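Why does residue order matter? Because the sequence determines the fold. Keep that principle in mind as you read this record.
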Amino acid sequence: DPSKPSEKDRVYGSWHSNFFSAHFNDADSVSSLLKLALTPEELQLFDLDTLQIDTDRLIDAASLASGYSDLLAWVKLRDGEKLAVWILIEHKSRPDAGAMVQILWYVALLYRKGKKPVLPILIYHGREQWRTEKSFHAFEHAKLPRGFLQLFQNRLIEFRVTFVSLRDARIRARLSELP
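Structure:
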């Protein structure tokens, strides 16, 4: 169950998670984060004045397993559509080979609750270089035989996270924009 962190992750990651949750638990901070993470073309689709933080906990009733995403918010489209886009923000303080499966788990739980579409964002602020793929397909299916992939790639799950590395010089230079 990817939503259950290991003992090491619970101990090591707790202060990182508490800091992250405390800082990004308001709409202004998430709005600023979106301005860092999205392209201007992507950003203009959203009415950031409608951005709301959701306090829902991701719980899978079938297995009674709790998944704790770092942050869940939603925002409406600028053009007046009555569509709310759910923003799942996961943060990591060190490279995590299971991050894509964990995010898939959270997205599936949100879809099950009718909260869709989901835009997953992964924020990384560790010291090591992040080398794990940012696409679920590349992460999970890269080792499948080429012939199989060519025939079935349109039937396999695929998504790409918006990846924000605080190690990136371009992002670091813009961090002062955050409240």
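The longest helix spans residues 7-23.
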